[in-house]
Amino acid sequence: MNRPTIIRPDFPRRSLPLARQLAETGLVRVTMDPPLQAETERADGLARAFFAQATAEKRRFAAPAFVEGYREIGQEYSKAPDRPDLTESFSMWYRNRHREAILAWRAACPLHAGITRCADRLSALTADLLQAMAEAWSPDAPRLRFQKVSYIQINHYEPARHERELLQDAHEDGHLITLVRATAPGLEIGIGDRFVAPELAPDELLLMPGSLLTLMTGGLVPPLYHRVRNNRRAEPRRSLMFFVNPEINQKLEPWIRNASNAGVDIVARAIGAPNRFGLPTLVEGEAGRGWLSGAGAKAR
Asked: Where in the sequence is the domain holding 22, given as residue range(s)?
């Protein structure tokens, strides 16, 4: 496949190239600066050690009421409840960052502390990317607030354990954007009428638009559908994702207005989107009204 031009984080104001790539190719490769790349690599090392532990030890760092920390395999689905995503997960939501019970994990769970540091760098990058989009499509728009309801997650796959051809069925995330990198092949993205494996360098992230960005751009940027193929490799595969949602206490107007988003409450769409995957809404998760059987997170 053709490689879109790379948007580098040391040029965060290159708004027209970024907007053009999203509109024309539906994705963007983002080159990480050395500190961000180092944090993602450290986070992966911590994840490798965490997921190698016994299940009982991993369960010590699970707060399903807040959709925080460890989730066991099969607690979320991408298309149908009878086809759960075949991955373990570990996440950190900014909305939970100052909860006393979660703060206690910092010393006892190196993975939680490590992905928090990584999320801080990804959040700064995301702010620049979203601002560049706004400058291209709606220069007078207020800054889009996102951090409190965005989250970082690492997924752990063991492909050889499963017979299914797809470890995760095709879907789009329902967020504004997702930034993703993985340690091994498996991710496939929808390009035209086929799915292909994206080509990423070790220092690159893939920016995947979600349906909320489609609404923000009046349909100009379509959501990127994707799935995870089972290559039956013996070695585990891990992926790191930063899922970006709009904060729910703001009035969010589209950057491009037309008939496709007329009368649509984008924040309401964001609040309810997790239900499509068997997860609590953003309001339920923030209030601690999650549930044990459905507190998973998206698989990549």
From this structure: 15-278
The distance of Cα 199 from the centroid of its chain, to the nearest Å, equals 18
* Residues 269, 215 contacting (CB under 8 angstroms): yes
Residue 217 domain-assigned (yes or no): yes
Instruction: Write out pLDDT tens, residues 254-283.
Output: 999 999 999 999 999 999 999 999 889 999
Predicted confidence at residue 291, as pLDDT, reads 67
41-87: per-residue pLDDT in tens?
999 999 999 999 999 999 999 999 999 999 999 788 899 999 999 99
Q: Rounded distance, CA 273 to CA 261, Å? A: 16
Is 296 a member of any domain? no
Q: What is the mean pLDDT of residues 182-199?
A: 94
pLDDT at 13 (0 to 100): 41
The mean pLDDT value for 196-203 works out to 92
Q: In what order do the strands lie in the sheet with 204-209?
A: 28-31, 204-209, 177-182, 237-244, 151-157, 88-93, 68-71, 62-63
Number of structural domains the chain divides into: 1
In a domain, residue 195? The reply is yes
| Class of residue 49 by CB neighbours under 10 A (exposed 0-12, middle 13-18, buried 19+) | exposed
Question: Can you give the CATH number for the domain in which 222 is found?
Answer: 2.60.120.330
Cα dihedral 7/13/15/17 (nearest 10): -40
pTM of the model: 0.92
User: Does residue 2 lie within any of the structural domains?
Assistant: no
